Structure formats: structure tokens, C-alpha cells
Amino acid sequence: VCIHRVRSCSSIRFIKSKYVCVFDKSALKFSHQQRLFRTSAVSCGQIVQFKLSDIGEGITEVTVKEWYIKEGDSVSQFDSICEVQSDKASVTITSRYDGVIRKLHYSIDDIAFVGKPLVDIEIDASKGVSPEEDVVETPPMSHEEHTHQEIKGHKTLATPAVRRLAMENNIKLSEIVGTGKDNRILKEDILNYLAKQTGAILPPSPKAEIVPPPRKTETVPAAPRDKAQKIPVPVSRPIAFSGKDKTEPVTGFQKAMVKTMSAALKIPHFGYCDEIDLTQLVQLREELKPLAELRGVKLSFMPFFIKAASLGLLQYPILNASLDENCQNVTYKASHNIGVAMDTEQGLIVPNVKNVQVCSVFDIAVELNRLQSLGSAGQLGTSDLTGGTFTLSNIGTIGGTYAKAVILPPEVAIGALGKIQVLPRFNGKGEVFKAQIMNVSWSADHRIIDGATMARFSNLWKSYLENPASMLLDLK
Amino acid sequence: MVLQSLKNCLWLSCVLRTPKAFFWSTASGGLIIQSVSNDVYQNLAVEDWIHDHMDLEKQQVLFLWRNSPAVVIGRHQNPWQECNLKLLRENNIKLARRRSGGGTVYHDLGNINLTFFTTRKKYERMKNLKLIVKALKALQPQLDVHVTDRYDILLDRQYKISGTAAKLGRTSAYHHCTLLCNTDKFVLSSVLRSPYKGLKSNATPSVPALVKNLFEKDPSLTSEMLLDAIAKEYAMQHQIDHHINLLNPADETLLPGISHKTKELQTWEWVYGKTPKFSVSTCLNMAYKDSVLDVKVNMDVKHGRIEVCNIDLPEQWLPPGLSSELVKSLTGSKFCPNETTTLVTTLLRVCPQDDELHSRWSLLCENMIMLM
């Protein structure tokens, strides 16, 4: 290692002076300086043919399976170049040099030969060709110096340039977490570490998410619903040094959202909100939960909300209707297929419970359990996701009070349920008591639904939930 | 074995509190570790971790592990070609892609996995397999087991009881293999049979083989006995203590970065997205009312996403705008039933509300989803 350092001293002296300048300036200029350094280092250099080294076991040929780089890419020593396969063995070929890939000698699925050129790499003339031996450093065995347990024999991968940078700044490579391939330490890692020491502020990468973006999505809880407010846990990701924008095509779930919401735009929405006192319902659910559990079903509040909605729709069937494309005909749907918005890993999906008008609260709970487990496993079928006539969105499980939900065509109404909060209210005697209050925000298609209808439906729905016993009178 | 494991666990938990007794730091020429987890992703992550982080110059490692039901495909394979994905999903059988090459295997608790870690220079598969055969014969001398030149282990010259794969990096390498002790052969053969037709790809194909469990030959053999016998032989050959160290793959302090590796192995991008480019060329036979429709479908799938999609429908069977909408939506999407279901059900929202149309649409989409 000593000999190596002496040899490369002369060739990388110019690197040292550049870095000395950088540290005098503000930390914000790091990335810019670094980029300059990179491009200036890779000028016209010698082209070296990197040959496929011996695989072992007498193997002479392999199949190229995947390229990790393409012509024109910069590579550093130890970067993965490609994956080849030979007789059940998958081999990762790594670069021996720092430089720019100028030519790939094989395409995917070609047979490559041991000892023959694999890629041509243009190496920076001033840097020279790095030695062929693997430059690997093992940290000294010093338990006393580290308060946390250290794994011995831990390889620290870093190029000579990086190692020099660390040495100049009195940094132990073992103290740095490498973010490069195979956990090798990159120049950025050293600079990040230094920035932390000096308290310099680095521009955060757009990739680092701190709080999950709020969405008008909700979960149908599998666990007994307590509507407790959960503080979003900051998603910590290692803050990458480069601050580049990232553009991705819109696919899959997002594409579906774009289509639905663009169609929904054409519907003139109006909103109507109200407050529901769920004190009695909360108590009722507490009593019924164990009964349902005995039958193997988790009972949340949703089955009650859904059943009450269906009872309301019986009185106001226009809310369970559909307007045709030309706004010429209104179709009153016979089935109450009530959709429940679900938040999954991939995005928003809205399966529906079919024919709620002939289901008991327990039946609905069973069906919700089924949809919920299929939903989280990503196995909902087309029939579960089509045919909905009315939707409820329980955004309250994540948080919020009032919301403006977007109607899902071809439906004409949707309800967004906020979280249940314990709030002081006045009772009939003028006394203050603890009430379990939930807010509901309805949105409806103003072309065929008027405010009065929505209000009356909401009042009816509210009365069923505030006094659950009254549901018994109208249950079919 | 449970009692022994518990005993070992307790012993280790006392021992691990003192940094000096860290089992990584033994100065001997070998180390035997066994995973306490049956999660295929966690165990594969341990392999990655040891491969990336351990210095195997002075100390080689034998890693013993077993998984709850899972199908493991090789690095460059095509899961649609190798197994019945629908069956897997329905039965909660996990699908994992390992980093080593080779073919597809089915794991359950009746199968043991052995990984031999060495430096790149000391990589030698025959040696490892011969070690296993020696251990088996020491345990049960009547067993007719031998190693073929395809690196399989055969029982009675006929039945495959072990398959091999390997991964070589810059400085380290590992060779792992399975060993069928008491695996459910019925499930094995059903899941490893692909129902998907019309697939054309250059992915590594698996070579099907007749398999047998060691248990069928000698019912007294258990997984624990086999693990122990192999560990003993390894210990002898490496001149180390015959002691199996238990390892918890979820231990982030012992294995920093392991949870990241575990997560990566579970991403869709790794499991499905790493499939080499392939094409699907098939004909959907859709029974509609009194006739049967033949619909030719052609798709190119790259990185697990549909690059090109062609659906040859009879004219006017669907409104022209709608079928092109379907193709447009599918292009760029994952070749995945869940994603496709979401897309097609959404498209239904924005087309005319016509029962006839809806049933035709559902029929077509259900058939398309069956291909995935």
C-alpha cells in the first residue's frame, strides 16, 4: 500500500490542489466543483481493452446476460460492468479502471470468451493505469476506539483518489458508510461526512422524502377502528449528494388515476358537509365487536356507515343513479353497490360491496374483510372493482376533518368521512358532555342532484347513525 | 432440534453481549452459521451480506438455511416461464429471485439449503458437493448418492436430490445447493409447471428432473440430522469446532444494511423487473354467447413492462376507440394482473354504460389478465 501511494503521488497531485480550494469555499459549491473535476479528468486518454478474466473451474466461455453500463458512461474502479452466466454460475464483472466506456464487445445473450476483450475503456492519461491487484483495505483491530460493535474483516472499498482524500482530512474510512456499489466509499460520502463535521448545509436531494405526500385516500381498517391520529413517520432515506430532477413516465395506477380524475372534471361538483354525533354508535360497536370476533370477523365502523347509506338511498334513489354521456337519461340503479376507497401500496383502489340493500351489517363486515385482504395482497378481481353505484371514502383513518372528495364516474355522489374526535357539546339540558364527533363531506353531481336532496339524504343518514336503534325500524 | 436451538440461542445471547465473543472474529479457518428465520428474502439477504461484507481470505463460511414455501428462480430466469404464478398467489407461496444463476427450485421446510462461501480463488463446487455426499454416506452408508458433472446430486443414479447454483463477485464467491429431505413433491410439481403459453425468451430455462426425498429412502432421516452431519463434515475438513452458530437475519446491529438488502429482494423491480426481454404470442379463445372468438395477442415485455401490445379483435366487436384505449393503457404498464385489473376497471368508468359492452369488455380483460 505504501509503495502504491508513492507511485500515484505524482499523478494525482493536481487533484489535491483542487480540493484545497474547494474547502475554502461554501459547501453549496461542492457538487459543482466536483462535477468540474470529473469532466476535466476525463479528457483524451489511452484506450485499454479490458479482458474477461478467468472465471475458474476451467471455464472458457460465458453468456453475457446484462450490461450495467453503456458506451459513453463513466466508470470507476470496482463499478459493476456486466453480469455473465456460465453453467449455473452468475458472475459480476467489475471494472479494473477509472475511465469512460468506449466500446462494448458483446450484446446481451452473446457468448463471451475468457481472455478476450470485454469492453474498451478510455483511461485518463494523467492518472495512468491502476495496478492490477485488488486494492482493499481492512480497518485495524481496535475495539477500544469504537463504542459500537464492529465487524472484523470488514472490507472497505475505495479508489486510491478517495483514499487520499480521506487521509488528507484525517478520516478513518471505517467510519464512513459507503453508498456506492458493494458499499464502496465514494467521494460524495467523504464530502458528506465532512459537511456534517463542519456543520455545512448541503442542498437536499429531491429524492429524500420527509413526509409521505397527503392524498385523498383512505384505509378500510382491518383492525378495530380506533380512528386514532397517527403521526406520519418521516421516511428517512440517505440524502444523495446530487440534486437532479427525476422524470418518470406515468404508468399503471397513476395512469388510472389520471383517466378517472380527468373524466370526473366534467362533473359539476357541489359540496355539503355536516357533523355527526357518534357517541351511541361507538358504544354499540364496542358491544358488538366481541360478538363479531367470535364469528371470525373484524367489525369496524364502516359496515354501519355503509348500511345507513343504503337505507338512505332507498329514500333518495337519485343519489344511486347514473347520467348518460349526453345528459339525456338518468338511470336509477337497482343495486346499491357501495364502493369503499382503499389505500394500498400501489395507490387508490375502490372495490365495492355488492347489493348492500339486502345485506345485514354483519354481511357487509364479512365482505369488507374479504376485500381488504385481497386489496392488500393485490389480488382484487375485475368484478370487485366494477359496478359501483355510490362511494364512501374513509379518509379519517389517516386524518382530517372535512374533505372535498371527487365523484367517481359513472356515479353521481361520494362521501368523505373525517376522523372521530372527542369534543365538548351541549346536550338537551344545556350541559356540556363528551361527544364523539365525526365530520362528513358529501360531493354530488349538480346536474341532477340539488342541494336539498343531498341535505335530506345526509340528515337521514345522520339520524340512523346518531341513533342506531332507529335503523332497526327500517332494516329490510 | 427446537430445544437445541433454544439452548444455542440462550447461550449465544449471553455470549453476544461481550464484544470479544463475537463469532465473526474467531481466528479459525471456518465458520458454520444457521439462520433462525424461514423467510426466503431474509435468508437470501444474508447471502448477499456475507458476499459483500465478509473477508473470506482467512475464514470460509458455511451457511445453513430453510424456507417456508417459496419458489426461487435464478438470476436470469423468467418467472412466467418457470412456474404457475396464479397458483403461487392463491396459496401464499412466495416468489424470490436469487442473485446466483441456474434454474428454478421449490423450497419448503423439508428442503435444506447450504451455502459455501469462499474467496473467488478458492471457489470449487465439486469439492463442496463431494463433502455433502461424504456426510450423507457417513450418516447412512447404504445410500447410493453421487455427484454428476452437471453439479447435481443423484439418489439411486436416477433421482435428483440436490440442485446447484453459484455467484461470483470480484473477490468472493458462493456456491449454494438444495437438499431434498422431506419436501412436498405434489406441491413442487404443481407450482413448477407453467401454464403460460406462447412465451418466447432467451432467459435461462430450467431442466426438469425426477426428484425424490431422502426421507423416502430412509424414513429415519430428518432435516436436523442431515444439517448436523454436513456441519460435522465441514468442521472436520476445515479443522474447526463442530459448532453451529445461530444467526438472526433481522439483526441490523450485527448485519448493518441487511434490512435494505431484504427489502430490495422483495421489490417488484427485482423479482419481475429483472426478467430478460421476452415476447408473448398467443390466441385467446373467448366463448361469447353462442360463438367462440379467436383473438390473437402479441406483446413484448421488457423489464417486466409491456413495451408493445397488439390485440387482434374482430371488427366492431368493441367500439374502435375503446380497444385502442386498452392497448394504449397497457403499453408501458407492468405485465402484472393487479396493475392490469386496475387499469381496465378504470377504463370501464369512462366508457358508455352499456351492459352488452361491459360484458364484452370484462370477457376480453379477464382473458388478458390470465396471461399474466
TrEMBL record, chain A:
Keywords: Acetylation, Acyltransferase, Lipoyl, Mitochondrion, Phosphoprotein, Transferase, Transit peptide. Gene3D superfamilies: 2.40.50.100, Chloramphenicol acetyltransferase-like domain (3.30.559.10), E3-binding domain (4.10.320.10). Pfam families: 2-oxoacid_dh, Biotin_lipoyl, E3_binding. The keyword Protein biosynthesis does not apply. Its cofactor is (R)-lipoate. The keyword Secreted does not apply. One of its GO terms (cellular component) is mitochondrial matrix. Residues 204-228 are annotated as: Disordered. Residues 204-214 have a biased composition (Pro residues). GO terms for molecular function: acetyltransferase activity; dihydrolipoamide branched chain acyltransferase activity; lipoic acid binding. It comes from the Eukaryota. Residues 47-122 form the Lipoyl-binding domain. It is found in: Mitochondrion matrix. Its EC number is 2.3.1.-. Belongs to the 2-oxoacid dehydrogenase family. The branched-chain alpha-keto dehydrogenase complex catalyzes the overall conversion of alpha-keto acids to acyl-CoA and CO(2). It contains multiple copies of three enzymatic components: branched-chain alpha-keto acid decarboxylase (E1), lipoamide acyltransferase (E2) and lipoamide dehydrogenase (E3). Within this complex, the catalytic function of this enzyme is to accept, and to transfer to coenzyme A, acyl groups that are generated by the branched-chain alpha-keto acid decarboxylase component. This is Dihydrolipoamide acetyltransferase component of pyruvate dehydrogenase complex. It comes from Vireo altiloquus.
Automatic annotation (TrEMBL), chain B:
Pathway: Protein modification; protein lipoylation via exogenous pathway; protein N(6)-(lipoyl)lysine from lipoate: step 2/2. GO terms for molecular function: lipoyltransferase activity. PANTHER family: LIPOATE-PROTEIN LIGASE (PTHR12561), LIPOYLTRANSFERASE 1, MITOCHONDRIAL (PTHR12561:SF3). It is an enzyme of class 2 (transferase). NCBIfam families: lipoyltrans. It catalyses: (R)-lipoyl-5'-AMP + L-lysyl-[lipoyl-carrier protein] = N(6)-[(R)-lipoyl]-L-lysyl-[lipoyl-carrier protein] + AMP + 2 H(+); N(6)-[(R)-lipoyl]-L-lysyl-[glycine-cleavage complex H protein] + L-lysyl-[lipoyl-carrier protein] = L-lysyl-[glycine-cleavage complex H protein] + N(6)-[(R)-lipoyl]-L-lysyl-[lipoyl-carrier protein]. Its EC number is 2.3.1.200. This is Lipoyl amidotransferase LIPT1, mitochondrial. GO terms for biological process: protein lipoylation. One of its GO terms (cellular component) is mitochondrion. InterPro entries: aa-tRNA-synth_II/BPL/LPL (IPR045864), BPL_LPL_catalytic (IPR004143), LipoylTrfase_LipoateP_Ligase (IPR004562). It comes from the Eukaryota. The keyword Acyltransferase applies. Its main location: mitochondrion. Belongs to the LplA family. Residues 56-242 form the BPL/LPL catalytic domain. SUPFAM superfamilies: Class II aaRS and biotin synthetases (SSF55681). It is found in: Mitochondrion. Lipoyl amidotransferase that catalyzes the transfer of lipoyl moieties from lipoyl-protein H of the glycine cleavage system (lipoyl-GCSH) to E2 subunits of the pyruvate dehydrogenase complex (PDCE2). Unable to catalyze the transfer of octanoyl from octanoyl-GCSH to PDCE2. In vitro, it is also able to catalyze the transfer of the lipoyl group from lipoyl-AMP to the specific lysine residue of lipoyl domains of lipoate-dependent enzymes but this reaction may not be physiologically relevant.
